[in-house]
Amino acid sequence: MREDLAPSTATTRRAWLASALVTLAGCGGGGGAAPAGAPPAAASPATPTPSSPPSPPPSAPSPTPGGASPSAAVRAALATGTHWEFLVTRQQGSVSASGSDSTQDWGLVRWTLGAPRQVAGVAGHELRIEGDTAGAARWLVPPWRFIALDGARWVASSDDTTLVTVYDPAMPGSSTGFFIGTGSARVLTATRSHFEGAYNRFEGIGLGASSSDGGCRWVFDEQVCMATTTSVSQQELLVDGIGPAGFRFSAGYLSGDPAVGVAVRQSLTVELVGTSLAARDGTQLRPPPWSPALPLPAARERAVAVTLGTRVYVFGGIGATADFDARRVDRFESLLGGWQRLPDAPRSLLGWQGTVVGSRIGLFGGSDGLLFEPVNGRWTATARRLDSGQVTGVGTRVRSDGRTEVLAIVDRGSAFLQATLVRYWPDQDRWETLGSFERGPLERYEALLVGNRFLIIGGRSGTDFVPSVRALDVDTREIRPLGRLAEGVAEPAVALHGGRVIVAGGVNHGGYRPQVHWIDPVAGAVTAGPALLGGVKGAAAASVQGAVLVMGGRDGRTTAPAVATVWRHRP
Predict the structure, then answer these.
(1) How far apart (Å, rounded) are the C-alpha atoms in residues 179 and 236?
(2) What DSSP letter does each residue of 182-231 carry, written as one string?
(3) Residue 275's beta-bridge partner residues?
(4) In 3D, which of 108, 119, 103 has the Cα closest to residue 32?
(5) Residue 98, C-beta contacts closer than 8 angstroms, at least 6 positions apart
(6) How far apart are CA 410 and CA 515, in angstroms?
(7) pLDDT in tens, 96-142
(8) DSSP-assigned states of every residue in 305-321
(9) Which of 132, 387, 443, 508 could tie 107 with a disulfide, CB 3.0–4.6 Å?
(10) Could you give all domains of the chain from N- to C-terminal order, each with its CATH number?
């Protein structure tokens, strides 16, 4: 281990090694235990990309150790308040004769320069590292507490006493890079290169280190020896005017006999997505289209979200400790940007669906419904309906005669090939059965009323996840294909936004998915949108003030049944 590595950082990296290597080898592969309720994962984990996975690590043109030319200087105007924001994604997959497994994780981390100071006679700044310690960022915490640009030489310190050369155009043997762990058996190389991230492409100076140690390898600053075939690759990119812009780490090993062993692959990517600095070549950064918003007051999965005016109401759901929070009601004030807890609903709303009914919000499930009046907080129960089953979709339509009707799909489960369409008249407090339609052996799908059609999106049929989008005409009860998602998912978050339907996340054999699709009901087109930063299923979605919110759900980053995360996107 490097002598200048901070003890806390060494502990973090040893923990990474233990989970990424020793545990996997000992248990015969896999990405760790999946959260309760998660399906078995596939070999190729999802990567948060706008429309397609980022390119693999670039092949640098014959990197060589030793001095780079003077034109390889990386400059930057460092000052108190200078900051870099990084998106960190981690993937892990294994393949064996018995099957495959994969996991993914992500996090956002911010570096900020603090007060000026000197270390070993060099003037620089203290470095503060903050961010999402619950995500993949926890796997990569650089040890630096001090950074300086001494002429053309970047230096850093982890103990406020000893300086380490991070980058020098002359490439002395002691150079480390901002992220690369060289170890005593590695030689750092430098060359002109580029970095392809999920959202940005950079060109600059590429630092690299790789090895295939026949059983021993350096991962960051720890040497790990196992009776396996191993390989490690690390690549970092520095951009003139900015400094650190990207890093990609990959490690692979084969545990056991090649014929029956487990092939394990680890990868970690760090991408610059925001900075106060400017690249000298004019490269403009593209931040992730989805940004964190004020989180839910309480974590929940399978909640119901309904927008009324400039406010979003979130009803029910399953709490983070697996205790049912199914009566809870929260309101988001989009103009003021805050959450407020409202009095609980009179009974559980788990598995219910919601829609706006005039100035009220209707929640429907079980054998009846509840009408909520936001002005005074009053709840009124509707009449009971005759059709038994779960309400899987609900929407409101104003007829040509001016009357308002609530239409709902009632489903008795995948064992029944038909579902029932029902209607509720709010002005008469009366239910009607309109008839049945053939929906097939489908469960865990989403249904959303748009005009005179219910869009039936995704779902699961037996062991298969369904990518289809179908349109049910509520007047004729005919159901027709409308389009297809790029992959089948169950339990995505859906919402109507500007005449289009957004479909975000979901779950399938690949785990929790980050993919986003837009459905144009008029054109009958399904297109890919910018993906979430990480996969989520069972989230609630809402459209308010020109933005889409994806709230809560389960993202697989923790063992908790639900999260409070809220993501905002302005299409």
Answers:
(1) 7
(2) --TT---EEEEEEEE-SS-EEEEEEEEEEE--TTEEEETTEEEE-SSEEE
(3) 84
(4) 103
(5) none
(6) 28
(7) 666 666 667 778 889 999 999 999 999 999 999 988 755 555 556 67
(8) EEEETTEEEEE--EETT
(9) 132
(10) 7-275 (no CATH), 294-569 (2.120.10.80)
